[in-house]
Design goal:
Length: about 475
Amino acid sequence: MVIEVCCCLGLAANVAQLAGLDVITLVKVIKNRVETVRQNKEDCELLAERADMILDLLRRVQESKVIEDPDMWKPTEGLKSTLRRAAAIVKSCQEDWSYAYRFCKGGRIARELRKVLKDLKFYILPLIGMITIINHDQNTRYYYIPETDVVKPQDASANNAGMLVALEETGLKKFTLSELEVATDNFSLEKQIGIGAFSIVYKGQLNEIPEVAVKRASYVNRIPFDQLENEAKIISKLQHTNIVKLLGYCSQEREKILVFEYMPGRSLDSFITGERAEELPLDWCKRSQIVKGIADGAVYLHKQCEPRIIHGDLKPGNILLDAALKPKICDFGTSKALRPGQDMDCTGIVVGSRGYMAPEYKQGGCVSLKTDVYSFGATLLEIIRGSRIPLSTLELSDESRDFGPLNKWAWELWRGGNLMEFIDPSLHGETHSAAEIQRWVQIALLCVQLGPEERPDMWDVVLMLSSDSTVILPKPSRPAYY
């Protein structure tokens, strides 16, 4: 009780010391303190990121001359109060805590951190709206803040001790090999629902779960094990509505197996080039729902996780659909978890899928967040076209045909104002959506630009997808693989 009272008094004293400081100074204080925090480091870094975002937004509003002084913004006093609380909490996280102090204080500080993070969102969203209305030029920066707070993945084990060690601390269920053999009829051919380069996926039935997807590593060489271990380490702590959920694992004898939630809608690919493309063509409402879900999932990986994650192989075949056709990103075998301060990962090894690979990755083996943006753009073009193959009469180079088959066609039609020729014929009857569909082709072209610096961030993409026709989009240049 004494320790808790001291904690409350200490936090109040910290807040009082910050009284009178302006927004800019408070943000600087928070960022400086976060550099030396000892407790709740990940949440403190996220808090600093949101505070810095607010400052950037305020500066942009000030530059618009609508608000000459950020302190004249109506909710500024409430914002200052929230930032003072944030700075005080971060200061508390700089301290070394004894066991007793941690026991009494740790839970309260964690709750305060979550509350402040949530409060900061209420100041970010109005500023985003103001900037969207004010700026109708090509230099507009778009921002995205998630509707709900997220659970961030923990850092992968530095010693790479294998899937078993990596997953034992996650709390995921550990299945025995015999359980999974029974669930899949001894991994029978009839239960196969997917075959990848390094694994086979089976539909299974467990006692407590009526339907699961069981992903079993192939035995060609060590690579499948490495890929499944990498996927397990990355996906085990991801929690997002547009990321497929890992339910459990098996690491027994020579087996490496992951158990996922089952997606009855199968892959998006089957609706584009598979048997269901003609039998059950998706209307625009369903396609737009799928596109926005993929974009939300990518933003989660790029911006809301710590460490940030590059998926590395976004494509329709790695997008699963549930019964309501909600998309979920899967297959993290080649994904990369970025170290703090790192923006790319260069291994010199290219592992990806033709048609979705950014040119800089194909040429040099360097992946970045912008390579995912390229893959998203290629996927969006495919969803709108309903095919990955352009008209046979279109002249394409070998490289364009293999790596960017829709880029040239879409860009030529966009530049000539004839985009209806590009859009899936099954959508031509949806005249009320024609303008939005054509607008989304332009967004896709922005994503498949040749240089990474020319492509938007994924959170820019999310806001562009949700904006109406009054917001003027940047004009794309000639795309990659032209």
